[in-house]
Amino acid sequence: MRHCFEVDGVDYELSLSRCQQGYRLRLRNKVIVPVAFSQEGESCGVLTIAGESEPVQFAIDGDMIHVHIRGRTRSLHYRDPLRTLACANDETDHLVARAPMPGVVVTTNVSPGQPVPAGTVLMKIESMKLETLIRSPQNGVIEQIHFQEGESFERGAALVTLSEEGR
Asked: What SS3 class is residue 53?
């Protein structure tokens, strides 16, 4: 599972995957094993990294996560992977909803020319029996649907292209 966080103006991409001892954390080119978190209250717990445990307090406010550990508080801005992929397009007047993983289109809920508000379900995809809803990250107009129901695609493929309203 890939995640992206912004801390003090710097983006960090990390991935977590299950392993026998808990989770494996990959941050940049470094792999840390094992990583585990046990929640002990509504906003506190114990974070264990490579056998060393630290008490942690946290607060979640939308996309912001405030973490207090070792006497310091850090604010992390979580960047949604779908929104990050959608905004990766270099063209300023287009917005592309991209595939977060390889898969198959199950259903398409929109058609070209249709105006959509942010959060509208554009399509449902399936990858390894896991269904995922692809949503519009902002208001726009459907410009192109790149894959039809039943068609397969690779990770990062453009699924739906939107144009900003009024352009």
From this structure: strand
The number of residues making up the chain comes to 167
- Euclidean distance between CA atoms 116 and 34, whole angstroms: 43
Neighbours of 97 (CB within 10 A): 25
Query: Tens digit of pLDDT for each residue in 67-76?
Result: 999 999 988 9
Are 160 and 148 in contact, with CB atoms under 8 Å apart?
no
**What are 15-49's pLDDT values in tens digits?**
888 888 888 888 878 888 899 999 999 999 999 99
d(CA 122, CA 109): 5
How do beta strands 64-69 and 52-61 pair? antiparallel
The pTM of the full predicted model, rounded to 2 decimals, is 0.49
Q: Which helix (H) or strand (E) holds 45?
A: strand 44-49
CB contact set of 112 (below 8 Å; sequence gap of 6+): 142, 143, 144, 145
Separation in Å, CA 150 to CA 36, 37, 108, 119: 38, 39, 10, 23
Inter-residue contact 95 to 89 (CB < 8 Å): yes
Q: What are phi and psi of 82, to 5 degrees?
A: -65, -45
Helix, strand or coil for residue 81? helix
